[in-house]
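Form 7-S
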Amino acid sequence: MTDFTITEDFPKSEIEFDYRFSKPEACYEYLFKYKWPDGFVCRKCGHNQCWLSSRKLYICTRCQHQNSLTAGTIMDSSKKPITYWFKAMW
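Output:
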């Protein structure tokens, strides 16, 4: 499992948090940045090209492995919107 560390890039106040993470796209963008800081890398084959499915899965263009931003986290397989999880963790 990958550990995520909150850094100086994280909002310092609730107002700033609400402004920044009110939309799911912003939450996914934040997770992407911390999971793959140098860009996408397939967990299975190491390839760096992917396409994004409608279910928010990053699918490797080489091996077709599905890579999830929330895999291995408390958000994995959750039916709750990601914005709820971000707010709860705040």
